[in-house]
Amino acid sequence: MKNSQTFKSDISGASFPENEKIYGRAIHDPILGLIKKEYPDFSAEDCISINELNIYRQKYISNYLSSEIGALSAMEKNVISSLKEDKSIVSIVEDEEEIRSLGQKVADKVADFGGSWTFIISFVVFITVWIGSNVFIFLNKGFDPYPFILLNLILSCVAALQAPVIMMSQNRQEEKDRNRAKKDFMINLKSELEIRLIHDKIDHLIMHQQQELIEIQKVQIEMMNDILDQIKK
Q: Which UniProt keyword terms apply here (predicted)?
């Protein structure tokens, strides 16, 4: 009888009905690769049973799911570690402290004070008191009578000293702006590179998952066809 014929599996050595015989050349490549990992001598002309083939099909699907879960876990660990370490350019830029010399500090203070309402009001009060005291109190016979030559000299000296100090502060401000522009460029460049890297990873994952899903669908279709063949028989 045809149904009573048996064959011996080339991987387990067990006997199975002839209608469950599957040759290696008919096995899908990913499943065949799993079999060859355990049995390197297994070739396209060797044969196994459907039940044994289904075991390797299940292994293939479970390995795929495990690898996907492992990849997600690794990605989560990388994200958490990066958040803990906080090795971003933004944090490095914010933590940088500018080292200024004594002259630079004085220039900044003078520039800040010279460009404030405090300086303007104080200067107006000083000039008013100076002129008022010489005109109304000393009747133009005091230490600086009209036309206030000493006051003009003081104002000229203040302007002569204040102008280069303000220019020094402006030069430093321009230097800070250039450094800030460089840091902004670094941040933008890093962001662009990371976005490109993320796009590449997403494309790679999509292609990889599509290929794996196609392979799984092929395996499932083969399993369904085997079940249908057994039902018909």
A: Membrane, Transmembrane, Transmembrane helix
